Amino acid sequence: MPERTVTVACKVGLHARPAAVFVKKAKELPVPVTVAKDGGRPVNAKSMLAVMSLDVRGGERVTLAAADGEGAAAAVDELAELLETDLDG
Amino acid sequence: MADGARSGRSTDSTGASGPPGANGSPDAPDSIEYEGVGVGTAAVAGPVARMGRPLPEPADVPATGSVGDERAKAFAALAAVAADLRARGAAAGGATADVLEAQAMMAEDPELEDGVQARTDAGKTAARAIHETFAEFHATLAALGDYMAGRVADLDDIAARAIAVASGVPMPGLPRRTEPYVLLAADLAPADTALLDRRLVLALVTAEGGPTSHTAILARAMGIPAVVGAAGVLALADDTPVLVDAATGTVLARPSTEAMEAAVARSCAASAAAAATGPGRTSDGTEVKLLANIGGADDVPAALAAGAEGVGLFRTELLYLDSDQPPTFDAQVKVYKDVFDAFPEGARVVVRTLDAGADKPLPFVPLGEEPNPALGVRGLRAFRAFDGRNEAVLRTQLLAIREAAGTSAPEVWVMAPMVDEVTEAEWFCELAAACGLDVAGGRVGIMVETPASALTAGPILAGRTGFASIGTNDLTQYTMAADRMLGAVGALQDPWHPAVLKLVGVAGAAGRAADKPIGVCGEAAADPLLACVLVGLGVRSLSMAPSAIADVRAALASRTLRDCEARAARAWEAATARDARKAAAA
């Protein structure tokens, strides 16, 4: 199961607009993807409400994981790259 | 709520000649007049939009429909709310579109759908399932503290909308509109009107209440014309055009052109006075942004005092006329931020990139000797010529604008000076996009200062260029082949010249065709009568010295869009600048 832990670059964290950018990308991916904070409970990365309820702030570390399947590793990499970019503005 | 009976006096609008924009179209036989109590003196026309009433919490009763029906109804309601949010976002554009897209994604959230489905599967009604599922997410987000307060409010709003749709009633609260409208309600409570946007609400019309009702008090306080207690008016469907005449206390549905023009003419003086503050618009509600020309943060207080809705021309080169060295990234971020931070959210600040050359040489943008600098390497050309040796200066400026705009409230737009054709415009868009500016969102544009770019505004706007701002001073200079700096040909430097107006008209038509905004920055925008003509030619923002804003605002407020168009058409046919001015004034 491909997995990556990254630091969220966006200063305001994963709220509202940045969360929307992230979730939108996740929805485009062909496999189920989860995101978890500090080893906490993983939530559906394709759910805006679930991602917002994680309350991820800028500079915090989150773990992305995808179910095994075609494109899973690439999906995790794509989302990881996105989180390492400042999405605000 | 009052019933929908049409107790209003019905009038047969004989002698009517047809709706605006139509030529010789039939009468308006379906005009209906409602009588109430007028508040104010102005007459305005616009489409009605009704206030939705909030629903009580849906009862937890067993669904009468099948499980599948309730689930389908709930999902359809969520999808309808998401689609509605997206449509409004698309209409508003810019940052608003992003915010509404995020809300739309909440409405169609997969986890939310799971929760709703679990509840309809358990036999709950669509409305109740939506209510309970949202309540659960409300609790989760609210527990995260104040940081999430805005999102929790969004969530409640989405829930109320979805429940209304699932229950087959209008969505609660103020209509979400991006175009001006006449607010229609049974009556208004203080809470209803707290968020009322003066820029969007042309008039208030209620079926209940009298001259001392909250609606009437609010209308007086806000200077919004109103007709209260107009029984039967709730029968009007959303988007029905109405003429609200506060002076006579009447609401005329589907008015004839004659009725509209007579009423609007009668209220001209009143509305001009009332328009002493507030955003720019014609008397029939066409929005025309009134913006200020500035050269730096020092000019901002005057702009704000005049009620400018932002900046239409920020002449950045004025900051650096005396510099030997190119301004650093950090220094630019600071000065741009000082300007941006002075304006509120929703305002627009259009930054013109360095306009070097001709009358404004910049020591750090070397250009070489030219016999005729006005026709030489200047404006955007200065950064493309000489194998791009000056390009780094422009790149640094774009990056600095991007950085300063990132955390600022107003919408920051960027435009390039002296663009002749689409290849240059695309080159600029490419560079701006590479520097992180919002090209796709329509915030990168060009100045139209040459006949070439005016005449090819169509192909330019068909590309990535998001908007055009017409610099009438240079456009006149190049159209008339009359040097701005030369007193001997000064008489030819008149933006009223029909040749100039025709070029503005071509650019205005191209803007309408591409659905991209066309503005004017330059002396022409500061002339109240010419400003009306420019609006008649399709211009929808005017940027000028702050001191001119009040007069231009009053001139626009006293005329309908059709009147502006008629004046423009007469000026367009004239032979000289003098004739054009006379024809427009007639």
Task: Provide a compact summary of the structure.
Chain A is an alpha+beta fold and 89 residues long. In chain A, 35% of the residues lie in helices and 20% in strands. In chain A, strands 1-4-2-3 form a four-stranded antiparallel sheet.
Word description of this protein:
Chain A is of the alpha+beta class and 89 residues long. Chain A has helices at residues 16-28, 48-53, 72-83, and strands at 3-7, 33-37, 43-44, 61-66. The radius of gyration of chain A is 11 Å and the shape is globular. In chain A, 39% of the residues are buried. Chain B is an alpha/beta fold and 586 residues long. Chain B is 42% helix and 14% strand. Chain B has helices at residues 67-92, 94-107, 110-121, 126-142, 149-167, 190-193, 214-222, 257-266, 268-274, 300-305, 329-340, 381-388, 391-406, 422-434, 451-455, 457-462, 472-480, 498-514, 528-536, 549-557, 561-572, 577-585, and strands at 32-35, 37-39, 43-50, 181-185, 201-206, 226-228, 241-245, 250-253, 289-294, 310-315, 348-352, 411-419, 444-448, 468-471, 518-521, 541-544. In chain B, strands 1-8-7-3-4-5-6-2 form an 8-stranded mixed sheet. In chain B, helix 1 (67-92) crosses helix 4 (126-142), helix 12 (381-388) crosses helix 13 and helix 19 (528-536) crosses helix 20. Mean pLDDT of chain B is 85; it is low at 1-27. The interface between A and B is medium-sized, with 19 and 22 residues.
